[in-house]
Amino acid sequence: MNDDARLVKRLLAGETRAFEEAVNTYQSAMHAVAYAIVGSRGSEDVVQEAWLSVVRSLSGFQFRSSLKTWLLTITANLAKSHYKRNRREVLLDDVPSPHGTFDDDRFSPDDGHWLLAPYMWHEDTPEALLTENELRQCLEHTLQHLPQLQSGVLLLRDRQGLSLEEICILLDISLSNVRVLLHRARLKVFATVEHFEETGEC
């Protein structure tokens, strides 16, 4: 029995700790999906509704996908029903990119991974830890001020580890749009890191 099967069995048995584990493990990914589709105003409601839907339909889960994929699909479908007026496509020519071209040599054109990762601190001095905390706050501020689809795609790819194809399916946008959104978000994050390294300020 794999980890998903064990967790589902515990959830079906009504084990409170199992539900807490599921929330701790998957809540942030579900929130990232909801945020990318409906924005900050509706994302919390969508995630709460998704958990209710999960509880109601868990007995019908047939392990055709991973538990995470199933949860994110439920979340995405609910978010889309909340926001189905627009398809939310971001056309390549619609938004100018002041931070560089899509061919920026800091990222792989194949999978969008960093070719040259931002500098990271590995010192344990109080000063270094303080600087690291300040940079983390600065990056969180940058993420909060990205356009919601850019932020959502970045979180799903870099924090949750979803593939580009999975993001396409969940957000119902094309692969080229996912690549552009991810690229632009990473450029802004990279610019924040560079500015912080040069000035010590956000």
UniProtKB/TrEMBL annotation:
- Short name of any one Pfam family annotated for the protein: Sigma70_r4_2
RNA polymerase sigma factor 70 region 4 type domain residues:
136-188
Every copy of the RNA polymerase sigma-70 region domain together lies at 23-88
| InterPro entries membership | RNA_pol_sigma-70-like, RNA_pol_sigma-70_dom, RNA_pol_sigma70_r2, RNA_pol_sigma70_r4_t2, RNA_pol_sigma_r2, RNA_pol_sigma_r3/r4-like, WH-like_DNA-bd_sf
List where the protein spans the membrane. none
Among the GO molecular function terms of this UniProt record, one is:
sigma factor activity
* Any single GO BP term: DNA-templated transcription initiation
Q: Could you tell me the keywords of this UniProt record?
A: Sigma factor, Transcription, Transcription regulation
The entry's family comment says: Belongs to the sigma-70 factor family. ECF subfamily.
Which protein, by its recorded name, is this? ECF RNA polymerase sigma-E factor
- The species this protein belongs to is Pseudomonas fluorescens
